[in-house]
Design brief:
- Two copies of one chain form a homodimer.
- Chain A is α/β, with parallel strands linked by helices and 358 residues long.
- Helices cover 46% and strands 16% of the residues of chain A.
- In chain A, the strands form three sheets. A five-stranded parallel β-sheet of chain A has the order 3-2-1-4-5, with helices on both faces.
- Chain A is globular and about 70 Å long.
């Protein structure tokens, strides 16, 4: 990054970008409508207050989705020589709002760092928040290749992986991989709210995983979903149609075609989940071992140390907890060719293997 | 367990029960319609073949849900002095089928060990498969307290936690915490099957968690869902009604009430997920730290060893992987009072903390 960077919005994302750029020696000018947030972010080293004579070449708008278009329009009007980007998790609507407002969109190029945790104020800011994460850049008819390179440099400076998509392609993609999963998970968890304790007490790891993101912030999500309503609605309608086929099959389980409808839903899920990228960006198949770990500090570390000593690389690890039990289960994914030896070596060292799945 | 135990079905569950009981010195008689499976399970030490003069006092039927009622009826007719249980994941329909068939249900008491992984044959069997897991026992109008105690003893011998529910209560509970989550996850993953690579490439941990169980076996799940159709249909219809409210709001995001409908879905999910039992059977709130771990064998073990040396007990741990990146993120849950010191100590030891959330 050459020149001054102005960041509008000193929340988690804005302050994290500021911290990272300050660390790279960039002159970062911070602004936030809340004087308290601004002062806090400056105290944390995420930038300095605006001063007369400032002349930013890049402005990053990091405010809530509902406010983004208005703030970008203001910044475009105030700084006639700067390139403006934003980091909101929806893109088409913001561009349309800017056009409707007659803003100079030739100097706007939207982007979206997929940092995963959009919660927390400047206190939670980290210079390495974006490390290894996709940062989607969304060119449009009036943006230029030079502007694109500036944002690629920004992503690079923050350790992110730049990805290019049109605003519509971005919105459709995040509807599928982020917004619809949020709704599906939240609505599932909502069914638990009034359930009997005895039913909730039977909860296993499957329900726990499926509802983890249901703990997300309602205020932020109402804005995201509202701003990406057409794309989310489209994916969610297809989801609902598939769900309706399952419900129809369950209402007449002995009718011709019902078993097939159920099979297609579950097998379709198999096909979809097989497409998810694995650890290094490819879909690999691993063997998983489930190993019992007593609930004593250091036991899991001892297990992982021994696996390391055996020269086996762990591809994934999950902990499962049993209700009321004094131990947990560690589910470890390894390459299939390593499985047999690992099981034998671990059992020889006294570990209990509670299950294996290819 | 006193007396002989006969196990019908030498798959993962049947063979695991056999292994555990043999380990306790019980005389276990195994049977499977497949001679190959039977021989394999006997080779693994899960029991012995039937012999003339056998007189089992308890029979455990561990066959697929679709076959359970027929097999239980056969066993009731063949062994007039034995108590028969089964381990299928649905209960009301089996009891109704037995009554319809005129079986002697006064000697039948159904149960369901929630062992989590219903896949795999006798090769995957483990004596400790049930350790710490709920084992639901489902008394009915013609079962007795003595029979109940026999199954409680069986659960105890296998290290499981006995739970009592009526068959209807069991079926409604597992519809909520297991069967509907399976459908919701599978149908979500199904939407990915035909998605563009670019969209799937943006997948984060949220989608990964939400679709993990979508890898489940279609054949088994068609049987489970078919056998519990009324209870699953009831929960799924309530889910669909809530989903329809979200879809209606997304189709008219600016209409009065739409934002509120979205907020209620997400906030309702917050309320539901807060009810899930935590590590020791209670819903606790933990602080989570996200720590960067380079992709070198032994790095995670070193991190956990150092956390152990600091005397901090880890309440949960998850690994996140970034697409194409050479490191992962370890998300660690600790008691809130331990968080500040742990962050300071880990940073002093050179670990990078990528995020904190209370």
């Amino acid at each position: 990054m050459n020149g001054q960077v102005r960041i509008v919005g000193a929340g988690l994302l804005g302050a994290s970008i500021g911290l990272a750029l300050v660390g790279k020696g960039v002159d970062v000018i911070l602004f936030d409508a809340s004087k308290a947030s601004l002062r806090l972010a400056i105290d944390y080293g995420a930038g300095r207050a605006a001063a007369s004579g400032d002349s930013p070449s890049l402005i990053v708008v990091a405010v809530p989705p509902d406010e983004t278009a208005d703030v970008v329009a203001d910044e475009l009007a105030t700084w006639p020589d700067a390139l403006i980007t934003d980091v909101a998790s929806v893109k088409s609507g913001i561009l349309a709002d800017l056009r409707d407002a007659g803003a100079d969109t030739a100097r706007y190029l939207g982007s979206h760092p997929m940092a995963g945790r959009e919660r927390g104020g400047p206190i939670s800011a980290r210079a390495d928040l974006f490390l290894g994460r996709p940062w989607v850049i969304c060119p449009h008819a009036h943006s230029t290749a030079d502007q694109h390179r500036v944002l690629e440099d920004l992503a690079l400076d923050l350790g992110a992986v730049a990805v290019t998509m049109s605003p519509d392609e971005h919105d459709a993609s995040v509807a599928l991989v982020s917004h619809v999963p949020q709704i599906v998970s939240s609505v599932l968890a909502k069914q638990l709210a009034a359930a009997p304790d005895s039913a909730v007490g039977l909860t296993g790891q499957g329900l726990r995983d499926t509802t983890r993101i249901a703990a997300s912030d309602p205020t932020l999500w109402v804005q995201i979903l509202g701003a990406n309503a057409p794309a989310v609605s489209s994916v969610l309608s297809a989801y609902r149609d598939d769900l309706d086929a399952v419900i129809a099959a369950l209402e007449a389980p002995e009718a011709q075609g019902s078993r097939r409808a159920l099979a297609e839903a579950i097998a379709g899920g198999n096909a979809g989940v097989a497409r998810l990228p694995g650890k290094h960006g490819t879909a690999k198949h691993f063997s998983t071992l489930v190993i019992m770990v007593s609930d004593v500090p250091g036991e899991l570390a001892r297990l992982l140390t021994e696996i390391g000593e055996l020269g086996v690389n762990m591809e994934d690890l999950r902990l499962e907890h049993s209700p009321g039990a004094q131990f947990g289960l560690a589910e470890i994914a390894v390459l299939p060719e390593a499985e047999k030896r690992l099981v034998a070596e671990l059992e020889a060292r006294g570990w209990k293997i509670a299950g294996e799945n290819a």
